[in-house]
Amino acid sequence: MAETIANGRADQCANNIDGPTNPMVTPILTDLYQFTMAYAYWKAGKHNERAVFDLYFRRNPFGGEYTIFAGLEECIKFIANFKFTEDEIAFIRSSLPPSCEDGFFEYLRELDCSDIEIYAVTEGSVVFPKVPLMRIEGPIAVVQLLETPFVNLINYASLVTTNAARHRFVAGRSKILLEFGLRRAQGPDGGISASKYCYMGGFDATRRITVFLCFDSNVAAGKLFGIPLRGTHSHAFVSSFLSPDEIIEKSLQHRDGSSVCEDFVSLVQTWLNKLKWSHLLGGIFSETNQSELAAFTSYALAFPGSFLALVDTYDVMRSGIPNFCAVALALNDLGYKSVGIRLDSGDLAYQSCEARKFFRAIEKEFGLPGFGKMNITASNDLNEETLDALNKQGHEVDAFGIGTHLVTCYAQAALGVVFKLVEINNQPRIKLSEDVSKVSIPCKKRCYRLYGKEGYALVDIMTGENEPQPKVGERILCRHPFSESKRAYVVPQHVEELLKCFWPGNSDKTREDLPPLKEIRERCIEQLDKMRPDHMRRLNPTPYKVSVSAKLYDFIHFLWLNEAPVGELQ
């Protein structure tokens, strides 16, 4: 066992690729029937036959017309370190019938992915149904063992990245989006994965880890992936204080170190009195909640350079906002600039507008440039619909913290990724169904995206492996894979080949580098910019066209007729 693990580590060093983020992603993270099929292949002497599988999905999620491809890096990490341990082989042996021959387990012991080739769309790309996200080539038994982990690694990753991109589209580019979903995610792995892929899909930060920066966010994800962190305090922190008398250490040094305020608590109280009798603010509040004031003051003493307060524990306008402003103004006297507030309940549109008026009134009355632009963050079970409603109502929110609906993909549970055999021993294969959407597109294919004059993507087209590549300025016939009447000529102004080699196996092909997360995120944003607005809209989006070449269309239907049994009526 030790020798096997050591060999696995040696392979990892040779590939210079770390293992999967989740250590549970091992060769036995699969369905039992993958091993029963592998044994049957081995028993029949078919296990080394060269097979080609396509990994794709059939429908875009969330009622939309686009999907973001994610999870490729984890798949490559998985196969780069694919090796069974002795413990795993022993468990597989115990799970299969005792009639299975010892030679099969010797075969598993030597198995790796050195003879596998993987071609894939670049992670972070916009993708569409039926077009292969990945093409996996290699010995059929090995490729079959990759099916379940690959589908698992791509399914949720692509779904939650798409969900994040859709929230970003509704919120707009100018707003800050924070992923708040760890505590509601489906377990630790769901939480960690969500943070990574929400960032990829356009979110700005996660709240996983520490209270140091601005919003309670996922710290573990920040450490693993370099995602910016945000974190503040909770309602429990506010309600844990009873009065300012609890604050023992009251001194705070000026930001430039030139002096020390010995009684910051009194300075806060002084500012609260000024606000109470302010000409512009008079009548908005009288007596605020002193335990809340104590909590804000204590938090500011701990984090004077990043003070952000949750203001809805008791009453937003009659307590939370005035208390926050008193603390922020006291900090301003000592050279610190506060971050802002968070609203977590109630009428977010109305409260944000009233808070903005309060901040602007303070800026005007006390001559404090920039105070009126204090950051306002909103949370409270937000989703696409509530973001859209807030936009229509009018609001002053600068940042949104989105959790449950985002990371759980509440609107759709799964993407529906499938893994289908399309060729074996150079013989194309097709999977038929009475449901046309489930009919597979056979043979090893090349996939292209054709762009129009305005720079927008017009259509994706699949061709046979040996067909000539579409050329700029030359007309090409694009056909619907299954509908005879749906066809169009396209004259592309730019042609992009979609599938690239990310794992060459033993071949001499050049392997594409895995880009860093930040670069994938930038690609996602860039790709969405190349989509026509009518494909992107939330309601009744225009379907994006996915097509095949005329030659591939003819071959699909030839193979279909050849494989489908002919009925007989009597």
Automatic annotation (TrEMBL):
Checking Gene3D superfamilies in the record gives:
Aldolase class I (3.20.20.70), nicotinate phosphoribosyltransferase (3.20.140.10)
Enzyme class, UniProt record, top EC level: ligase
Q: What EC numbers are recorded for this enzyme?
A: 6.3.4.21
Q: Name one GO biological process term.
A: NAD+ biosynthetic process via the salvage pathway
- The record places domain Nicotinate phosphoribosyltransferase N-terminal at 29-155
Q: Which Pfam families match?
A: NAPRTase, NAPRTase_C, NAPRTase_N
Listed under catalytic activity are:
5-phospho-alpha-D-ribose 1-diphosphate + nicotinate + ATP + H2O = nicotinate beta-D-ribonucleotide + ADP + phosphate + diphosphate
Sorted alphabetically, the keyword list is: Glycosyltransferase, Ligase, Magnesium, Manganese, Metal-binding, Phosphoprotein, Pyridine nucleotide biosynthesis, Transferase
Which pathway does it take part in? Answer: Cofactor biosynthesis; NAD(+) biosynthesis; nicotinate D-ribonucleotide from nicotinate: step 1/1
User: Which residue ranges does the record assign to the Nicotinate/nicotinamide phosphoribosyltransferase domain?
Assistant: 339-438
Query: How does it get modified post-translation?
Result: Transiently phosphorylated on a His residue during the reaction cycle. Phosphorylation strongly increases the affinity for substrates and increases the rate of nicotinate D-ribonucleotide production. Dephosphorylation regenerates the low-affinity form of the enzyme, leading to product release.
GO cellular component, as recorded:
cytosol
Q: Which cofactor does it need?
A: Mg(2+); Mn(2+)
For this UniProt entry, the molecular function terms from Gene Ontology, in alphabetical order, are: glycosyltransferase activity; metal ion binding; nicotinate phosphoribosyltransferase activity
Annotated Nicotinate phosphoribosyltransferase C-terminal domain ranges read: 444-555
Q: Which family does it belong to?
A: Belongs to the NAPRTase family.
**Purpose of the protein:** Catalyzes the first step in the biosynthesis of NAD from nicotinic acid, the ATP-dependent synthesis of beta-nicotinate D-ribonucleotide from nicotinate and 5-phospho-D-ribose 1-phosphate. Helps prevent cellular oxidative stress via its role in NAD biosynthesis.
Query: What protein name is recorded for this chain?
Result: Nicotinate phosphoribosyltransferase
The gene coding this protein: LOC104212996
